[in-house]
Backbone:
């Protein structure tokens, strides 16, 4: 029925970005940087990066400032919770129950 | 000769001997009566160097099966054994092993489920996991335990489904009988190495059994993969294929070792019988004695033994029971609130079949209640009397109940 044989009778996947699908559409709130707060930005250095350390889905990339991959970020809010200077705010997605990126 | 020697041994030793002959590479188990002597024996053989295998000590049955799952995932031939509450403790991994399509073999020395606590025999433990997607084979005697366990590896590895070899606790597990032990060379030929499916490969790493949602979906490389339901349908088909594979493997076994166990079912005095007595395990062997005795008093009885309970041999039982006047099932388990599981499945198989006999159910031997030939014969006489009186359906009888 249109399903190509994926090669085996056992459910398997190859470890790779997005193997569980575009989980970004699960999100009801997105992490957004609050201007002027991020320690890395303030120090103009690869400082802190705690959000990158704690993101359970590897959706944050190290940087000045760190960046979020919204294709896969489920909006769990851990990055906002661990940020020592409240530089990340969780903003509700549009739509009745949030919505897609 | 395909058989090296004959020795007197318990059913548990027969199971352990089969695992040794299959050259299992990983054994993991947790002790529980009446299974414990199986893995105690294997442990000793590993310690003494008679069996080149890893014996993994674990803290629970859940971990025992998890070790087997991990080892089988990289292609190792594994063995475990358990009973009753141990099997129940494995339950989550019982389902995982089946859904991950791993060729595991597990021996279940059948024992009553607690509460109340009881270590004696019935078949409630394995019957309770009939829906998990394992092949389930029930054994009549110690020779069949050894032979079926060997057959189980060939089945599991060819179908990519786990196989549970069930035998009655104490009645077989702790009772000695002569058992012909096949030669290692003959078993090596029957069970060639390297057939186990390695699903993990360091050069091609995979997640096994990852999140698989409802609908088919492209993977990260864009290849459309099955959804959950498609994998379950393939699994169900593999169990269906076992309906051919079980008799084929039994025939191949007979070709090498000269012993056939009937494949899916077996009959004793069944062809010309009017009353078919149905059961699984050692109870079916006992019913053979009952059938012979009943013939002496004018009841033309015969036995239909259920060897494969999953997959359920629907066509085979329809053919075997065609033309019978009565089918009396004896279950050593209950689906509480309904009836005996074999009875239910048999009724389902015969539903809508023109001329099919009425099916009467009986519950016997729970928690080790002694089931004598006299008890069984009495139950059959009462069933036949009801049939003659025009009864075509009745609630199951709890035989020898003393409430």
Residues:
């Amino acid at each position: 029925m249109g399903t190509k044989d994926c090669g085996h009778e056992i459910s398997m996947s190859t470890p790779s970005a997005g193997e569980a699908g575009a989980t970004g559409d699960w999100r009801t709130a997105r992490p957004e940087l609050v201007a002027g707060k991020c320690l890395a930005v303030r120090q103009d250095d690869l400082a802190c990066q705690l959000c990158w350390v704690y993101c359970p889905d590897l959706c944050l990339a190290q940087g000045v400032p760190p960046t979020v991959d919204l294709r896969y970020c489920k909006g769990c809010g851990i990055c906002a919770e661990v940020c020592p200077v409240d530089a990340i705010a969780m903003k509700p997605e549009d739509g009745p129950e949030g919505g897609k990126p | 000769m395909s058989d090296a020697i004959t020795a007197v041994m318990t059913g548990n030793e027969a199971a352990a001997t089969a695992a040794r002959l299959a050259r299992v590479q990983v054994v993991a188990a947790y002790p529980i009566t009446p299974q414990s002597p199986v893995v105690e024996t294997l442990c000793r053989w590993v310690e003494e160097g008679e069996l080149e295998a890893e014996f993994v000590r674990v803290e629970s049955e859940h971990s025992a099966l998890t070790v087997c799952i991990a080892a089988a995932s990289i292609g190792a031939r594994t063995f475990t054994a358990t009973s009753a509450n141990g099997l129940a403790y494995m339950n989550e991994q019982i389902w995982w092993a089946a859904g991950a399509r791993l060729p595991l073999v597990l021996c279940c020395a059948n024992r009553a489920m607690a509460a109340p606590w009881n270590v004696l025999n019935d078949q409630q433990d394995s019957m309770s996991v009939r829906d998990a997607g394992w092949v389930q084979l029930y054994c009549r005697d110690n020779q069949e335990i050894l032979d079926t366990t060997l057959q189980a590896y060939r089945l599991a590895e060819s179908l990519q489904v786990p196989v549970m070899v069930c035998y009655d606790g104490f009645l077989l597990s702790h009772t000695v009988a002569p058992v012909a032990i096949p030669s290692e060379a003959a078993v090596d030929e029957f069970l060639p190495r390297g057939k186990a499916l390695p699903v993990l490969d360091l050069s091609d790493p995979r997640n096994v059994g990852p999140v698989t949602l409802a609908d088919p979906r492209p993977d990260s490389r864009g290849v459309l993969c099955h959804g959950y339901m498609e994998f379950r349908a393939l699994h169900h088909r593999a169990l269906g294929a076992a309906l051919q594979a079980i008799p084929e493997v039994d025939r191949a076994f007979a070709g090498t070792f000269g012993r056939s166990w009937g494949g899916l079912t077996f009959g004793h005095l069944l062809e010309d019988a009017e009353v078919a007595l149905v059961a699984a395990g050692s109870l079916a062997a006992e019913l053979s004695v009952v059938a012979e005795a009943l013939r002496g008093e004018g009841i033309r009885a015969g036995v239909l033994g259920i060897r494969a309970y999953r997959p359920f041999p629907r066509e085979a039982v329809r053919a075997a029971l065609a033309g019978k006047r009565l089918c009396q099932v004896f279950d050593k388990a209950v689906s509480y609130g309904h009836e005996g599981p074999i009875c239910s499945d048999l009724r389902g198989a015969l539903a809508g079949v023109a001329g099919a006999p009425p099916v009467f159910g009986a519950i016997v031997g729970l928690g080790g209640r002694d089931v004598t030939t006299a008890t069984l014969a009495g139950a059959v006489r009462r069933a036949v009397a009801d049939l003659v009186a025009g009864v075509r359906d009745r609630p199951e009888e709890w035989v020898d109940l003393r409430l």
In short: The two ends of chain A are 30 Å apart (CA to CA). The longest strand of chain A covers residues 29-33.
